[in-house]
Amino acid sequence: MPKESAKVTPWEVSGRVDYERLIKQFGVSRLDDKIIEKIGKHAKEVHFMIKRKIFFAHRDLKWLFDEYEKGNKFFLYTGRGPSGKVHLGHLGTWILTKWLQDRFNAELWFQFTDDEKFLFNDKPYEEIQRWTYENMLDVIALGFDQKKTHFIIDTKHANLLYPEAIRFAKKISFSTVKAAFGFTNDRNIGEIFYTSMQAVPAIIPSVLRKRNIPCLIPLAIDQDPHFRVARDVYPKLGYYKPAIIHGRFLPPLQGIDGKMSSSEELTAIYTTDSPKEVERKIKKYAFSGGQATIEEHRKKGGNPDIDVSFQYLRMFFEPDDRKLEQIYNDYKSGKMLTSELKEILVGKINSFLKEHQKKREKARKQVDKFLFKS
Ligand code: TRP
Hints:
Tyrosyl-Transfer RNA Synthetase, seven-stranded mixed beta sheet, two-stranded antiparallel sheet, about 50% helix, globular
């Protein structure tokens, strides 16, 4: 697919994403060595997803750490649009968020945008409510600190969010939203309003404690446009602009274009998939950078850079740099076959999911404790 056709909006990601181009297009900053060093200095380690530039861009991180050094600590904010099952592609951002929570002892506000998914999808409200509950289990299973984590559900915490959302809405024009998201006149009016709901959690702790508190938002880059639109509004309302750290998309099974998507069953591995399903999906669908025959593969070697299984190891399942490099070299030289590479990945995913699914069941008893109570 030619680069020109790549599309990145909060509701659609397709084509070969050119991350360098996105940095310019979205007006964000590259996560350079200097800022990574700053993160390492305060966190006492650098997460492999940062080291490998899976998180590759940011807004205002330098400011955030300058404040931090003055003793002005930040809280974290991220979210989930509960439109269906959670898949591996969603977890990267949340795993980094959990790491940031641990390393910086930071409070986390986690927004479930049931309003968004009702407004933007053709699904009944009741179904979205069920996904909200199911998705909360996945977030809890990742091990967030219950005492420091607050879940907010847009329609359930409307008394908290709505009075703030209208302040954003009043300062964002229809033409701004149209330009940012490419909305046409036939879109429903809830969609037009929605960005103001997503902007709000970045100020909620400041509202509640009546003092300005810096905010860091880990997100996948497709969510950036909401905050680009809301950015100018924060200072107008008397708040800091939130800092952001932007992640790449986990590719779908079929190849490195686009992103893993919950609405396309066969592009994704869900957190609730059984070991057999995982094995079948990887073996049958994971796009391979290997050669057509074993003989050819031994001779020419594979291409790990376009191989989806290798990318999953690099982005998620093999944090050990030396092991990853070994796999890279062995695959590239032809010493390792596609079937062997896939075997490694299946093992990694299944041992991760085994633990995750256990914790996910336990989470049913914890949901209430994570829900914010005013
Ligand atoms: N809109 C996001 C989604 O569709 C959910 C979300 C809400 C979010 N607030 C956020 C994502 C803040 C990242 C950061 O999944």
